[in-house]
Amino acid sequence: MNYSSSPEIPLLVIGYGDTSKADQGAGYKVAEVLKKKNYKYIQALSVYKLSSRLASLVIKARMVIFISSYQVSHDMDSEIMIKHFLPHYEKTEMGISYPNPPHSLLSFVKGVYGKKPDAYWILIPAVHNQPHQYLSCLTRKRIKDTLEYLIGESDCDGLDRNPYQKYREVKNKADFNIRGEDAPTTSKGLVEGSVWVSLGWQ
Question: Mean per-residue pLDDT for 37-66?
Fold first, then answer.
């Protein structure tokens, strides 16, 4: 697609990270799920790292949400973190260190094109960071939380997981249905408009 001639993008979601290192690819995987949903007002892009080549998309976006990961230890039950970038995209300390943050790309877009889209950065906690590892239970849960926050649903079937964990999930779901309980309802997300307002998107 020739993005340079495409119309304005209401919401651009850029998920990035190294999928060969398990949890470090969490942002990439969120974007992959969003692409499959094919929402009219959301354009999702999954990349391994940010680069200036993404500027042609960013300049057309009213809002940009970057999604990546941050490393935690095995004994931490960490939450997702959400950072709202200031108008001048100053780099603000978040108590973490992550390579390839969005600041440089946003500053490039501002300096070269004079564009300052409203920008957010969602960071998903990552435990496993070695090749050939499965997604950790924590990161899988936080991926679902991120999708719930963005679109009001947490369907992420197809993500890599430990086969034994899948068996446990199926068994627990069967137990849940046997008890005759209704599935929990979810709040509406960005697609329905509720989170647009909370994020300052009008």
Answer: 94
Check which CATH number belongs to the domain holding 152 and give it. Answer: 3.40.50.1450
Long-range contacts at 181-184 (CB < 8 A, ≥ 24 apart): none
CA dist., res. 87 & res. 166, Å (int) = 43
For residues 35-63, give the mean pLDDT: 94
Q: How far apart are CA 48 and CA 147, in angstroms?
A: 19
Instruction: Name the residue among 186, 172, 109, 134 with its Cα closest to residue 29.
Output: 134
Distance CA 26, CA 84 (A): 19
* pLDDT tens readout for residues 135-171: 898 999 999 999 999 988 867 665 555 444 443 443 3
Query: 193 lies in which domain range?
Result: 3-198
- Bridge partners (DSSP) of residue 81 are 123
* Distance (Å, whole) CA 177 – CA 100: 44
d(CA 197, CA 202): 6
pLDDT at 106: 93
∠ Cα 66 31 60 (to 5°): 55
Domain count of the chain? 1
